[in-house]
Amino acid sequence: MTSSPHIHDDGAAVAARAERRWATLSIVIIVVIAGVAAFAGIHQATMPQVRVETADPTTLHIGGEFVETNLGSAAEPDGTVTVRAIGQRYSFTPQCILVPTDTPITLRATSSDVVHGLLIQGTNVNTMLVPGYVSVLTARFEKPGEHLMPCQEFCSIGHEGMWARVKVIDKAAFMNMTSNRRRLDCVE
Amino acid sequence: MSAESVFSLRNRWFITAVGITAGLFLLTAVVGLIVLPYAQRDVTFTSIWDAICSAAGVPQVRSSAAPVQPDFKVSTVVVTASMLGQPSQESIGRGATLAQQCAICHGPVGVSRADSPNLAGQYASAIYKQLKDFTSGARVNAIMTPFAVSLSEQDMVDLSAYYAYLPRLPAYHPEQGKPAPRIVVNGAPMRNIAACGSCHGALDNKAGSPWLEGQSAAYIRTQLQAFASGARRNDISQQMRNIARQMTPEEIDEVAQYYASQPPQSRRASSE
Amino acid sequence: MLNSRRLILAHFWLAFGVFGLALLLGAWQMFVRSPLQAWISNPEWYYRSLTAHGTVMGYVFPTLVAMGFGYAISEAALKQALIGRRWAWAGFWLIAVGAVTAMVPVSMGLASVLYTFYPPLIGNPFYYIGVVLVVVGSWIWVALMSINLHVWKRDHPGEPVPLAMFANVAGSYLWAWTAVGAALELLFQIIPVALGLRSTIDAGLARVFFSWTLHAIVYFWLIPTYIAYYTIFPRAIGGKLYSDPMGRLAFILFLVVSMPIGIHHAFADPQVGAGFKFIHSAFTALVALPTLLTIFTICATAEVAARMRGGRGPFGWIKALPWSNPIMLATALSFVMLGFGGAGGLINMSYQLNTTIHNTQWITGHFHLIFGGAIVIMYFAITYDLWPHLTGRALTSVRLMRAQLWLWFIGMIVTTFPWHWVGILGMPRRMAFFDYSSPALAADAMSVTMSAFGGFILVASSILFFAVLIQNRRAPQAEPGEYRFATAIHPPITLPAVLNGHALWIALMVGLTVTNYGFPIMQLLVTPETSVPAVYVGAEK
């Protein structure tokens, strides 16, 4: 506001000066906020998914990554765990996801019909499932325990019944289980 | 003042406003499209172009490990709301002829006396999907499988069209007036059971799901038990197994009794 | 000089009429999903009600308020009879007809898709057509505001446009452009599918189009409130506006930066690249700037006015403000809610913090506090301020007005604070009922019950609001005098062209839309095979 128009007296000059100070402060506040977001993005690796991927929702069940026997948790050679899941009206498959503690987890999920949302309570795992696209996010669970995993997006009548669960178990126990099953879940 | 041109390189406001806006966009674009992608720890990019394209949202082909293939037959039907469309009179007519071989179990007008499913007025997509699954082996039944494997694709379409066309008749065992059990209207959210009615009619219909009013209690019970045990696995991506395995035997019984006691809902004016 | 009183009254009555009905639905929703009530026997009723509540509160009510207030500003600030009054009535009736057209299928349960549409869910085509009619009706208003300003400028060359009108027209341009996103989604994606001309739809693209509208629409709702801060509040407390150019700058910033930031609603969406999410996040931070400037200017305005009234001390002047004045009270309460709501907004705007609360009850709590609280309380204030000039009768009960405003404030706080809290606990949005008997959800029960009582307080407040307006009908006729807007301490004598017109800022708004939305939209358009089968709602039983 350097060119505040037609300032005629001292009062106006004082007012303009106060305004300029406040405007500068406001801009500083905003730069700090944006900076913090960028910093968090870099140092805590909490950026949105890196790549956009597509998947045909109508044929997920016939073959490929999201065929039902490939859903669940898979131990990868590099020591990480990949969890694959789908959302459909009105359940996630698997409806109970099993993950180990202290392990980098990559969640890959998509929807076979409408828009769903996947939220693991008590964690930062929270993403949309949009039919046609694959949602990918990374997570790490520190403590064993159980979490609820509701669908957080309206997916038509029946949405209120779409609650799955996540069970976090000790890493060693999880790895033991992978020796006789290639895809794990905690569905009973 | 009207002489003062806004869109002019001599207007300081114009230069400043456009400059700041463009500068902000460029700054955020460089940070968002180049700096932040490279700051990701677990990701490697083949080139700066790869990083920019990824961050801009260009879809990429995944390189996924070989999936674990099913050791059983899964349903291969693609179910959509607009499948089968408007049947022709000819298709319905052919279906009527073909349906004569089904009448022993499913009744001459699509209403069974033998605990087989009633088919009169059933959704075409639901009938078609089951016929396809019997043919492919995704669903197995000692009586139905031999019938189904002899059907051509067109036969299945025609049969579905015919039965969908038939009027919905009341079955033989209605004891109406029972209040709907909670599991039917509300489900059990914490056990991931949505209300039955949100897919099977009454509240809403999900494409490929049948409506259930007036079906035999024995049939509904058997199928729910088969889904729960995993003996029946032709529900796409476990959508029905997820629900059935969470139900108690009492709830399964309650649901079966309730639907068996209900008269079919009258068909809406225009059918698809 | 208010010539079009019937026109303005019609807008306000229709606005508050539909508001009252939608408020009852909202309170009912709070009640039925709380532990106070057993699970409803048909969850579909809940989503039906939710669709109606959102559509009316989001599209119909604020649009009518902005339009009615806009016509009043055009006449009172420009001192010029409204040009195109017949067109204005046509716009009004389009909105009325559109609202009814949309609400009939919704009330029949044929379009329970929520006001955010959510394709591939597809409801009855008349629902979408009704919404389009509402938007088209409001575009007539946009055109009329532009024409009226243009004619005034032609007749008053070189004179500064009154701030109220400058802001009003900025708001109308903002709305015209921000509505384009949803219009593209409706006209080219949803309606053809709803009519059965196509059976597939790209849900990812539709979400990006909708985000174009979804965020900036909030600023369209906000602008009448900000106009009231700048041009009604100073006059109502017997003071003058601290700075006129600062006000213009705030509205210009809204015009430029409230649009190209909508993808922050799609942080968790898989179809948008991370880079564009960051760009939108950064610009979202920028949109806090006009609000920070406004807080300064309005607080300075209040302080100057209070010191003129004999207020002393660094904070002691606050006591000298005319607290018994409903406009003073409403503005102060609005600021408090804006402060809390804005702080919540800072959490939503960054991808990192957003992940903890995305699509939880926090979000609903947030926008109810900002829109239902900070914004709507000023809609009440505008109504109280304008009403005697519209009806020619005085508003007699200042105490009733104050009680109404306090109840609204208390109701909003009681409703939204627990709402935010259960969101942090991870309670998902838009569910017809919850199993509070589950240990995992038992902690939510108390908060949800409190929210429901907050909803009842809001209903009580709205009853008082209508009582004030109905009392006014029985009050004796009184000449209210000319309807004036606040003047600045240093009124501008001449202004640089950029501060007296919108052209540059519209160009920047469109330019930023192209840079921030162009690539994501083009990318999704050319990506093959991402159209998915439509899922029809309520079509077959």
Structure description:
The complex is a heterotrimer of chains A (188), B (272) and C (541). In chain A, 22% of the residues lie in helices and 30% in strands. Chain A has two helices and eleven strands, in the order αβββββββββββα. Chain B is an all-alpha fold. In chain B, α1 (12-39) crosses α2 (48-56) and α5 (124-136) packs antiparallel against α7. Chain C is mainly alpha-helical and 541 residues long. Chain C has one domain (5-536): Cytochrome C Oxidase, Chain A. In chain C, 71% of the residues lie in helices and 1% in strands. In chain C, the strands form two sheets. A two-stranded parallel sheet of chain C has the order 1-4. Chain C has a two-stranded antiparallel ribbon with strand order 2-3. Chains in contact: A-B, A-C, B-C. The interface between A and B is large, with 52 and 54 residues.
CATH superfamily of the largest domain in chain B, by name, is: Cytochrome c-like domain
User: Which strand-content bin applies to the residues of chain B?
Assistant: under 5%
- CATH architectural grouping of the largest domain in chain B: Orthogonal Bundle
CATH topology name of the largest domain in chain B: Cytochrome Bc1 Complex, Chain D, domain 2
- Total strands of chain B: 2
Q: Main β-sheet of chain C, in a few words?
A: 2 strands, parallel
CATH class category name of the largest domain in chain B: Mainly Alpha
Q: Averaged pLDDT of chain C, please? A: 93
Strand content of chain C: under 5%
Oligomeric composition of the shown chains? heterotrimer
Distinct helical segment count of chain C: 18
Please name the two chains that share the biggest interface, counting residues whose Cβ lies under 8 Å from a Cβ on the partner chain: A-C, 74 and 76 residues
Uncertain runs of chain B with pLDDT below 50, 5 residues or more? 268-272
Task: Please name the CATH architecture of chain C.
Answer: Up-down Bundle
Secondary-structure-based class of chain C equals: mainly alpha
Shape designation of chain B: elongated
Query: H/E order of the elements of chain B?
Result: HHHHHHHHEEHHH
By CATH, the superfamily of chain C comes out as: Cytochrome c oxidase-like, subunit I domain
InterPro entries (chain B): Cyt_c-like_dom (IPR009056), Cyt_c-like_dom_sf (IPR036909), Cytochrome_c_Oxidase_Subunit (IPR050597)
Pfam families (chain B): Cytochrom_C
Organism (chain B): Microvirga puerhi
Protein name (chain B): Cytochrome c4
